[in-house]
Amino acid sequence: MAADGLGLLRVKERYFSAAIGTALSLAYGGLAWGFPGIRSPYSSLYRALAIFCVNGAGFAAAALTPLSPRYDRIKCFYEKYGRRLVIADMQLTMVSLAFLWLAVVGGI
Questions:
Q1: Cα 42 to chain center, whole Å?
Q2: What angle do CA 40, 44, 16 make, to 5 degrees?
Q3: Tens digit of pLDDT per residue, the chain (108 long)?
Q4: How many whole angstroms separate alpha carbon 56 and alpha carbon 14?
Q5: How many whole angstroms separate alpha carbon 108 and alpha carbon 64?
Q6: Is 55 within 8 Å of 87 (Cβ atoms)?
Q7: Is the pTM of this model over 0.90?
Q8: Dihedral sign computed on CA atoms, order 85, 91, 97, 100
Q9: What is the largest CA-CA distance in the chain?
Q10: What radius of gyration, in Å, describes the C-alpha atoms of the chain?
Q11: Would 75 disulfide with which of 10, 37, 40, 68, CB 3.0-4.6 Å?
């Protein structure tokens, strides 16, 4: 992954973040399986789509990275919040992938 290659995330953090996001999604899948009232045929797809849209905002922030040396305000923003943005983007990616997997197998 590019995040640890750029020095924004350590390898241990990447795997820990992926494990936490997947575990939380699977825990929700277990709750949905136990309580059929909160399940619907498209609920996980709606959640995954919402997370994917938020993840798109993270991608847009990452796409602005090459402009950071040119503009002082963007450079300051990335120096201050860049690591947090990468971690949040990683979490959202793992959660959306787990929800999509749960939707495909019919878990939610």
A1: 20
A2: 145
A3: 555 555 666 777 777 877 887 788 788 777 877 777 777 777 767 777 777 787 777 777 777 777 777 888 878 887 888 777 777 777 777 777 777 777 777 666
A4: 19
A5: 36
A6: no
A7: no
A8: negative
A9: 53
A10: 16
A11: 68
